Amino acid sequence: MLLSEAEAAAIDARIAGLEARCGVQAVAAVVGKSDGYPESVWKASALGAALAALVVASLDAVHPAWMSAHAALAHVLPMIGVAAASALGAVFLPAYARLYLSGFRAEAEVGQRAQALFLERQLVRTRARNGILVLASLLERRVEVIADIGFDGRVTRADWQTVIDAMTANLSSGRPPTRSVKVSTAWNRCSKGCASRRKPVPRPTSCRTGRSRRAVRE
User: Comparing C-alpha atoms, which of 173, 147, 162 is closest to residue 25?
Assistant: First the structure.
């Protein structure tokens, strides 16, 4: 569930309005996942093998004669097959992969991905230090907002958290991260804070590129 063209256009319009109203530099990014999480695949594979071994042991107890006649196939193939199927599920099925994903690890990876994008888009180089990045990571169902020091005293931590909570609720329910009244209300509150607590600064040009306002889809 990455952004469609219509959804990306809607986010672009919202970002453009925020930039025009508050004189900030904003980038929104939606990514499928913030890391490969190879440990999730190994965990899924190990669990599949363990469950298959349990089934094989149970069948051995119930039908020992049949199991003895087909010992090699009965013991090896089920464990290999179930382990492989479980590993593939962790790769291609997000809902299944989340079962093996540590919340602490997910939070750390989304935070690192957001910081990397913030630097990659050179948002730290705005003249007024008023760059902002909003990252939604779908697998982890987490949202990260990074605002430069130019927002200090203009938008509170509680205001940003309102945006994060509203967008996270959308991700958890399978909706696009920006499509809800709560998200719009939260963003309007933040933009009003930017516009009212300090006079708007000139639109920054130091890091303006043709892609700077586009919603990033990865």
Answer: 147
Beta sheet of 216-217, edge-to-edge order: 142-147, 131-137, 25-31, 216-217
Contact present, 131 and 123 (Cβ < 8 Å): yes
CB 136, CB 170: distance < 8 Å: no
Q: What does the pLDDT look like over 45-104, one tens digit per residue?
A: 999 999 988 887 787 777 666 555 566 666 777 888 899 999 999 999 999 999 999 999
Task: Indicate the helix (H) or strand (E) that contains 3.
Answer: none
The architecture CATH gives domain 5-35+103-217: Roll (3.10)
Dmax over CA atoms of the chain, in Å, equals 84
Q: Give SS3 for 7.
A: helix
CA dihedral sign of residues 149, 150, 151, 154: positive
Kindly report the backbone phi and psi dihedral angles of residue 214, in degrees, each rounded to the nearest multiple of 5, phi listed first: -70, 145
For the chain, what's the residue count? Answer: 218
Domain ranges of the chain: 5-35+103-217, 38-100
